[in-house]
Amino acid sequence: MIAFIHIILFLLWGNKNVRSLFNIFTGTGLLFNIADMALRYFNTGAAPTSTLYDVMNMVCISFGITYFILYAKYKRPLIGLFISPFMVAASIVSICFPPNVSPSYPVIDSIWRYVHLPFIVLGTTFLVAAFTASLMYLIQEAQLKKKNFGFIFQRFPALDTIANINNTSLQTGFYFFTIGSALGFVWMLQNNLEEILSSAKIIFSILTWFLYAALIILKKHKPMTPKQTAQWTVIGFILILVTYVGVANFMLR
User: Fold this and answer.
1) What is the distance between the alpha carbons of residues 30 and 192, in angstroms, rounded to a whole number?
2) Judging by beta carbons within 10 Å of its beta carbon (0-12, 13-18, 19+), is residue 122 exposed, middle or buried?
3) Higher local confidence (pLDDT), 253 or 209
4) Are 87 and 63 in contact (CB under 8 A)?
5) Terminal-to-terminal C-alpha distance of the chain
6) DSSP code of residue 46
7) What are residue 115's phi and psi, to 5 degrees?
8) What phi and psi, each to the nearest 5 degrees, are found at residue 206?
């Protein structure tokens, strides 16, 4: 939350010291979350995917890792303006669920789940980063069309840079999401979960994968404008939200 406040202040003031403080607080929060996950594992032996508390903590860590990877590549701290709210939201959701909640499905503790979820979460956070880059692109393009060269235009990266951030996040996220989906499919095959195959979670996961697959294929074989890419990425983000609602319902049954 402190990091989020500082990135807003950087947006308003453009002060480099405030930008540095944002990175410091984000990194500190990331380390605290990693420490929490490690201590929980050593004290209880519970895997970091055992409860919604653990999963949301993993989501928060994944967002932090995603931000620093993109920042290291593009040196654009305002990526954090859109990513940090998701970190805050994941933290708030995690503390709403007691750490001792146990899933009721006997097959949920399969080893495949432990390798499936980290890839899915990391892939999802990169796809969310692509969504945030899409928002940045659409906002910046609107500023250009209106010839509004105020502080938002000055703080945001150039359109080409935003488009590159979007492409990098999209391809990386799809790569990890595909691996996670494949591992999840193996998990389901081993347990023959017919009722789960027909659940909304699986249906929307498949739809999400096909949408991003189609988007990447179209970009390679049929040139798309950055604006079109941004618009389709926003649609994919909506499917991700629906999928995560399905995951939450699945774990709370």
Assistant:
1) 37
2) buried
3) 209
4) yes
5) 31
6) -
7) -95, -25
8) -65, -45
Q: Could you tell me the pLDDT band of residue 201, with boundaries at 50, 70 and 90?
A: low
How far apart (Å, rounded) are the C-alpha atoms in residues 3 and 81? 9
Instruction: Report the C-alpha gap between 230 and 217 in whole angstroms.
Output: 15
The four Cα atoms 63, 64, 66, 69 give a dihedral, to 10 degrees, of 170
Instruction: Quick: pLDDT tens for 114-128.
Output: 777 888 889 989 998
Residue type, 121: V
Token look-up 């519970």 returns 46
Report residue 107 CA to chain centroid gap: 26
What number of CA atoms fall less than 13 Å from residue 35's CA on the CB side? 6
Q: How far apart are CA 131 and CA 136, in angstroms?
A: 9
